[in-house]
Design a protein that fits this description.
9 strands, 18% helix, alpha+beta, 34% strand, six-stranded antiparallel sheet, three-stranded antiparallel sheet, 4 helices, globular
Length: 128
């Protein structure tokens, strides 16, 4: 079973969110990276760009497939994880730590309430 940290929120598209004040870090879950296999490339959103909840935020490619990344929150991209440009495999080894994708200055913090907690995400994984 995938590791599911309790201090994060989760989307049905398998992104995690960690809120810190008005900002949120976003990454993909252990389940997502495990399903994708060895990650070979990540296209992240541009710094300063606006993301909408549920809209495409980038692309992630692995030896198995290419997959869209979706933003689980609305806001402006405040930072991106540039380390992933030269070492995208960090996502495989540390999806909840060094494998974060980007941070967002939240436009609507209430969107966080619509995301799943760890227990709900674990139940959701049983259905997919």
């Amino acid at each position: 079973m995938s590791k599911i940290p309790n201090d994060l929120k989760y989307s049905k598209s398998h992104e995690w969110v960690k809120v810190d004040g008005d900002n949120a870090a976003v990454g993909i879950t252990h389940h997502a990276q495990d399903t994708l296999g060895d990650i070979t490339f990540v296209e992240l959103p541009k710094l300063g760009s606006s993301l909408k909840n549920g809209a495409e935020a980038g692309v992630i490619e692995s030896v198995k497939a290419a997959s869209d990344l979706y933003s689980p929150v609305t806001g402006e991209v405040a930072s991106v994880n540039n380390d992933l440009e030269s070492a995208p495999e960090i996502i495989n080894s540390d999806p909840y730590g060094k494998g974060w994708l980007y941070t967002v200055k939240l436009s609507d913090k209430s969107e966080i309430d619509a995301l799943m907690d760890a227990a709900a995400y674990e139940k959701y994984l049983e259905t997919v």
